[in-house]
Amino acid sequence: MPVRGRALGLALAAPLIFLAFWHLSTAGRSFSLIPPPLEVGRQLWDLAFGGVWDDLYSATLPEHALASVGRVYGGFLLAAALALPLGMLIGRVALVRSLLDPTLQLLRPIPVTAWLPLAMIVFGIGPRSAFFLVFLGAFYPILVNTIFGVRSVDGRLFEAAAMLGVSPSAVFWKVVLPAALPSIFTGLRLGLGFAWVVIVVGEMTGVQTGLGAIIMEARQLSRTEIVISGMVVIGLLGFLSDALVQALGRRLLRWSPQHG
Amino acid sequence: MADGMITSAALNILDITGVTKRFSFNGEPIVALEGANLTVRKGEFVCLIGPSGCGKSTLLRMIAGFETPSEGRLSMWGAPVSVPGPDRGMVFQDYGLFPWLSVARNVGFGPAARGRPRAEVEATTKRFVDMVGLTRFADAYPHQLSGGMKQRVAIARVLANEAEVVLMDEPFGALDAMTRENLQRELLEIWERTRLTVLFVTHAIEEAILLADRIVVMSPGPGRIVADERVSLPRPRDPTDPEFNALRRRFSALLGSHH
Predict the structure, then answer these.
(1) Same domain, B127 and B247
(2) Fold category of A60-252 in CATH
(3) For B167, which residue in chain A has the nearest alpha carbon?
(4) Nearest to B251 by CA among B201, B205, B204
(5) What are the pLDDT digits (tens) for B147-200?
(6) Residue of A nearest to B141 (CA)
(7) N or C, which end of chain B has less CB nearby within 10 Å?
(8) Comparing C-alpha atoms, which of A100, A93, A185 is closest to residue A142?
(9) What residues of B are in contact with residue A185 (Cβ under 8 Å)?
(10) Are B175 and B246 in a shared domain?
(11) Which pTM was predicted?
């Protein structure tokens, strides 16, 4: 427990110093473009529960957060549902690899943000474009790591399985999949992280709800304290979501010296 | 006479006749093994010794079914060997354990993969985990084990899978001297108890004399079998014994004269 307390203390040191610096350089100034932390805190409270300003934004945070979380996990799950089987096929079947890998590698360097205008044309201005961008952002990390995991299984394990009587058709489930799990997991974690990065860009496409949407809207209204509040919430949600995935990984990958 | 021949043929678990293995290395043909003949009787402990490049591992891998001979015939109980199978268990120098499975699940892997009933798998697993002295580590994962313990798991999983022939490819080569001695002794105890057929590849003369009923000496360039001799010293064998030393000199000379 003291070790944990020490780790927590060390982890909190940098944010606290940053908060102090922020406070000292903004509080009490009559003209500051950046609001001081206490004001952001009050705004955050109002966004979450209302009762401070009682304006258009009061108590709207749950709605926006829920919309963003829905898109992030929706896009992420769709990406996983497609990238996992595709990655396994590309990794294991030479024909599929020759057929699809060059095209996918050619499309990969295009930044997700560059897809924005095209997404708006194809999917219209609205949440579907945001969903598509999140999907695209999560897709490649999952795909690339799945291919890598499936392809880099130690050849010795195939021999061991064969001499123990595993039939060739069972090798995938008994050897390839478990051996690739750490890489696949890394891909999922990166993909989910990326989904959170892309969501703000995705929600700039004229959607009404979502954390990205209120950030953009508040920017136009020069409500910088709302912009920062939105950033804080995205940071927290992304952090929690990563912690969740990591906890899951520690359970599933107890056997791996890198994860357990 | 005829009767005697039938009896001895019936005891031959492995028959290797005129086996040659050629590889292509950077377009250059390499003869890894040339015209190897070897018969192994059920229950024999045979050591294959020789310097690197003599084809001893290649021969073992062909018996395992990991590689196919370019010429010649390999058969077990008279049936040609073509693919790997649970009747020929392999113990690798680098263990080849499944890192995502516990010690117990690694040992029970073969029976489980071959669809044995759960209760039977569990009983077999326990029996062989106990046999190699890893009862306390049944739930540990391979990365938590020492090299010697990993090799015990590898031996146990082959035994648990009812292998008739145990193929061992320099299994103790990566272990420290003390661990190696312990494992050699334990392997002999297990072999004496189970009377399995063991083919053991090593480049250490002393290890071969300590373990084997029979030592097959091989030489490189191209890989060939150059001698095949019985070791009739009573067990347990003592490496400081003068007779042991005489054998050591003899096999040293056999190995040396073919370089």
Answers:
(1) no
(2) MetI-like fold (1.10.3720)
(3) A163
(4) B205
(5) 999 999 999 999 999 999 999 999 999 999 999 999 999 999 999 999 899 999
(6) A255
(7) N
(8) A185
(9) none
(10) yes
(11) 0.87
